Amino acid sequence: MLLGITPLVREPHYKVYVSKVYSLLVITALSIALPFSLCYKQTEFAAMVNVRLVIAALMTASLYAFNCLSILSLPFAMRIKWQHLFNNLIKLEASIPNKSTKVKQYYFVFFFVNAFFWTVTISDLWIWYDIVGWEYIQQYLMDGVQTYFVLIYSLVLHALIRSLAGYYDNLRHLFENRISQWKKHIHMVPDDSSAFLVHNQHLFALLKDTVDVFNDIFGWPILLVLVYTGLLVIDYLDYTFKNYDGLDNNDFYKVATSNVFLVFLFFMNILSLIWMCDSVLQQSEKTLKLCFQLRAIPTAKAEMFITIVYNNRPRFSVARFFDLDRTTICSVLSTITTFLIVMFQFKGA
């Protein structure tokens, strides 16, 4: 279990109670520390204009809600869903092994992202400690810890979505090879063609079921990650361009560099998450196009198979509010740009 947000693949019954207690302890610690952090920020809140105060409140609420949801949902609500997800992944790995999965690559990404995050976070704390003293650490250390949970959760999402993309890609290659063989003997389709189609229609249904379970588990957390990341980007860019007039050039460049790096990390996090979801959809569409070629092959189950594949296309739903695909990137950029323009106008007035 990783920071209380992921279970073991096979968890002994007694560890269920341990994970519940552990999750409650983590949330209790966050709940006790958060009011102290907010109290230390009272002076800063008092100096904010209304728009910035609303953004600060939404950031705090979305971050805390994300941590409560991601940590408490596992032992108290989503344990069966998680087991369902693991069982599906085990079946998929047995049927269409994901050769694109490279464990060393996952480790490299995990350690690189962690090193990048903590380097930027510690640098930011040190820069502001040098400028205003211990007060800044009292105000924002809690935010750094909570934000780290978002980052770790996002790495779990990336690993799962990448695995799904690999399974869809392998299934597409399997179809490409089999259809090319059938086309060479179009008037004499092998006897195992029907068995092949029946077997693979179960794989498509299994993949769709896996994506649906993924949506059930991660829909709301992904929504909160998107909300928090959008607010973080707006907040940091606004501060960088408008709020540091009192700093000398050296301090300004340090703060601006730290802010830009953190914005880059979290924006690239959601960008890559959306991009990988879209890659799963693309692999599914490519496979569906291949399936339409079955109409040229004389096999009785072709039409039924095409219908099943069409009806089992994946769909990444964010808490049923909207779907994750490439157009979501444009929506996020549009929202961030609009907010920044509004905030700049408020401050210019």
Automatic annotation (TrEMBL):
Domain of life where this protein originates: Eukaryota
UniProt cross-references to InterPro entries, sorted A to Z: 7TM_chemorcpt
Major subcellular location class: membrane
Keyword Transmembrane: yes
Transmembrane feature ranges: 21-38, 53-77, 106-128, 148-168, 217-237, 257-277, 327-346
GO biological process: chemosensory behavior; male courtship behavior; sensory perception of taste; signal transduction
Keywords carried by this UniProt record: Cell membrane, Membrane, Receptor, Transducer, Transmembrane, Transmembrane helix
Topology with respect to the bilayer: Multi-pass membrane protein
GO CC entries: axon; dendrite; neuronal cell body; plasma membrane
Subcellular location: Cell membrane
UniProt family annotation: Belongs to the insect chemoreceptor superfamily. Gustatory receptor (GR) family.
Function noted in UniProt: Gustatory receptor which mediates acceptance or avoidance behavior, depending on its substrates.
Name under which the protein is recorded: Gustatory receptor
